[in-house]
Design a protein that fits this description.
Elements lengths: L4 E5 L6 H15 L6 E5 L5 H8 L5 E4 L16 H6 L4 E4 L2 H5 L5 H13 L3 E6 L3 H5 L3 H12 L9 E5 L13 H19 L1 H6 L1 E5 L4 H8 L6 E4 L6 H12 L6
Parallel strand pairs: 1-2, 1-8, 2-3, 3-4, 4-5, 5-6, 6-7, 7-8
Helix pairs in contact: 1-2, 1-11, 7-8, 10-11
Bound molecules: 2-phosphoglycolic acid.
């Protein structure tokens, strides 16, 4: 049984006061929820203050991006060690906005994933097709290529979560249907099996992302290979994010 994993990608939202309010509300609403891993990925400058705000809870913190080099003349960037310094334990790598807005390539993402794991942190590696790629019937081929270019037997599967985020569903209000998402998730697991073998691939959590909301979370999370969600817009509203976490908790069999 894979522990459901709900992550909130805050993108470039929230100032310090708003961030503390959101975390305080989530502390309260998630206090009674068991059996779900919950990760908050705020803007990097909030990681230090929020480490204090989540202290004593099971809420985890992650960064949305990292530079692959350990240090150097990279204006505006931060390294894995800097993220680790804050107490954060995860980094999102390869989000479609990093790929499409900032031009990150599979080659660069390969270096980033390896740097994160070498630095002792865990990775959420994002993959997903654009609308023209889906309409051309290339979804699985695109996702397979994104996996093959970045993941390999020497990239520790135990440190890895994969997020399937169809680009056409991100921030658009359009969600992949549970069946559409499950089909791709199963394809991703098959690809991971080819790299890592069945046992390790079965243990990797695969999140769905793209307009996940309280109203569609339960149906998505009910699918056998959808192990969690990477949530954008809805994670900025405490009640919505809490409802998605509760939907995940309901998929956990009673002990
Ligand atoms: P969304 O974003 O939930 O707002 O569609 C998801 C993401 O970009 O990770």
């Amino acid at each position: 049984m894979r522990t459901p994993f709900i992550a909130g990608n805050w993108k470039m939202h929230k100032n310090l006061v708003e961030a503390r309010e959101l975390v305080a509300a989530l502390r309260e609403s998630s206090a009674g929820v068991a059996g779900v891993d919950v990760l908050l990925c705020p803007p990097a400058y909030l990681l230090f203050p929020l480490a204090k705000a989540v202290a004593g809870t099971d809420l985890m913190l992650g960064a949305q991006n990292v530079h692959e080099a350990p240090q150097g003349a990279f204006t505006g960037e931060h390294s894995v060690a800097m993220v680790a310094d804050t107490g954060a334990t995860y980094v999102i790598i390869g989000h479609s906005e990093r790929r499409h807005v900032f031009g990150e390539t599979n080659d660069q993402l390969n270096k980033k994933v390896r740097a994160v794991i070498a630095g002792g942190l865990q990775v959420i590696y994002c993959v997903g097709e654009t609308l023209p790629q889906r309409e051309a019937g290339k979804t699985q081929a695109v996702v397979d290529e994104q996996i093959d270019a970045v993941l390999a037997a020497d990239v520790d599967a135990a440190k890895l979560t994969v997020a399937y985020e169809p680009v056409w569903a991100i921030g658009t209000g359009k969600t992949a249907s549970p069946e559409q998402a499950q089909e791709v998730h199963a394809g991703i697991r098959t690809r991971l099996t080819g790299i890592y073998g069945a046992q390790a691939a079965n243990a990797v959590r695969i999140q769905y992302g793209g307009s996940v909301k309280p109203g569609n979370a339960a149906a998505l999370l009910a699918e056998p290979d959808i192990d969690g969600a990477l949530v954008g817009g809805a994670c900025l509203v405490a009640g919505d994010f809490a409802a998605i976490i509760s939907a995940a908790a309901e998929t956990v069999p009673a002990a």
